[in-house]
Amino acid sequence: MPETDIEKAKTVCLDTWEKIKRGDYSNFLSTKNTEGAHVRPKATIQSPYMETPQDTLEKKNVSV
Fold first, then answer.
1. What domain count does the chain have?
2. Which residues, other chains included, contact 7 with Cβ-Cβ below 8 Å and sequence gap of 6+?
3. Whole-number Cα distances in Å, 6 to 21, 39, 60
């Protein structure tokens, strides 16, 4: 993997961790503002919610 791709992934990863720590689950970076790197939350139809570090339930993005 090229070093530039690793740096993009690192930027997205660090941004995601900080947003999770703050409880901001609505503003993850997308491919539009990171040139390809992005977070893809996983979900199933049976369980569209995830428990957060803040002890809340947040809806996952569900793609069917």
1. 1
2. none
3. 22, 14, 26
Task: Give tens-digit pLDDT for 22-56.
Answer: 988 888 887 777 777 777 666 555 667 888 889 88
Q: Does residue 9 fall inside a structural domain? A: yes
Region class of 26: left (phi > 0), else alpha (psi between -120 and 50), else beta: alpha
40 lies in which domain range?
Answer: 3-59
Strand pairing category for 49-51 and 57-59: antiparallel
Torsion of CA 63, 23, 58, 62, to 10 degrees: 0
What is the reported pTM? 0.60
What mean pLDDT is predicted for residues 11-32? 86
Looking up tokens 């930027």, which residue turns up? 11
Looking at residues 6-29, what average pLDDT do you find? 88
